[in-house]
Amino acid sequence: MSNIKYILGSFGDPDEMMHGIEKLQENNIKIHDVYTPMPIHGIEAKLGVKRSRLDIAAFFFGITGTLTMLTGVYLATVVDWPINIGGKTHFALPDFIPITFELTILFCAFGLVGSYYASTHLFPGRAPRVMDLRATNDRFIIAIDAKANAEHEKIDELLKGAGALEVKYNERKYVSYE
Amino acid sequence: MGTHHYNLSEQFEFTGKVKTLSIIGIVIGLATIGYYGFVSSEHWAHERIFANLLLMAYYFACVCMSGAFFLAVQYVAQAGWSASILRVPQAMAKVLPIAVVILLVVIGLGLYTHNLYHHWHADGLTDPNSDNFDKLIAGKSAFLNVPFFMSRQVIFLGTYSIFATLLAKWSANEDLEGGLNSYRKSFKYSCIFLVIYGFTTPVFAFDTIMSLEAHWFSTMFGWYNFAAMWVSSLATIAVIIILLRRAGYMSWVNNSHLHNLGQFIFGFSIFWTYVWFAQFLLIYYANMSEETVYFYNRFNNYEAWFYINLIMNFLSPLLLLMDRDNKRSETTLLIVSIIVLCGHWVDYYQMIMPGVFTNGTKDGSGFGLPEIGTALGFLGLFTFTVMGSLSKKPLIAKNHPFLQESLNHHL
Question: Which key words are in the record (chain A) (predicted)?
Answer without folding.
Answer: Membrane, Transmembrane, Transmembrane helix
